[in-house]
Design a protein that fits this description.
Radius of gyration: 15 Å
Strand content: 15-25%
Structural class: alpha+beta
Oligomer: single chain
Order of helices and strands: EHHEEEHH
CATH architecture: 3-Layer(aba) Sandwich
Distance between the termini: 46 Å
Shape: globular
Length: 151
């Protein structure tokens, strides 16, 4: 069974390793992976946002990081994910669904209305499949993320 729990500072090394797996699979491969920056970012998310992990038999197999802040033009609270990632062999196990369900509940508990909870597909991993999955969870398309092509 996959357990979902809040991440702790003591999980940092395992989360970094999971982040490396995401990096290898993502569109970010052309950029240099910076472990120190990841640690600093994770410390902030663990203490001020939502950092949750999916765990199976003591191993971290998925993660989700998120934050909340007022919209840039209004006082309306918005939430967004910083990342959602599940190892390929654990996709289809409900790990991602459970992570996202916790994210939605967390945002709503902190006063974010359902229609102001956002999730993205920014790493370029299985874009179409991920979009269909998010749609099944109640999300709708609200924009497109574009990346300038290399010359």
């Amino acid at each position: 069974m996959i357990n979902i729990r809040k991440a702790k500072e003591s999980d940092m090394d395992a989360i970094i390793e999971l982040g490396k797996s995401m990096y290898v699979e993502s569109d970010y491969q052309g950029m240099a992976f910076n472990e120190d920056k990841c640690r600093a970012f994770l410390s902030v998310v663990i203490t001020t946002g939502l950092a949750i992990i999916a765990e199976k038999d003591g191993w971290i197999v998925g993660m989700l990081g998120a934050g909340i802040q007022p919209h840039i033009f209004t006082d309306t609270l918005m939430s967004w994910d910083d990342l959602v990632y599940v190892l390929p062999q654990y996709r289809g196990t409900r790990a991602a669904q459970r992570l996202i369900t916790v994210y939605i509940a967390w945002a709503q508990e902190l006063g974010v209305k359902r229609e102001n909870i956002y999730i993205g597909i920014n790493a370029g991993i299985n874009i179409d499949r991920t979009a269909r999955f998010y749609h099944k969870l109640g999300f709708k398309r609200s924009g497109i993320n574009m990346k300038l092509q290399e010359e």
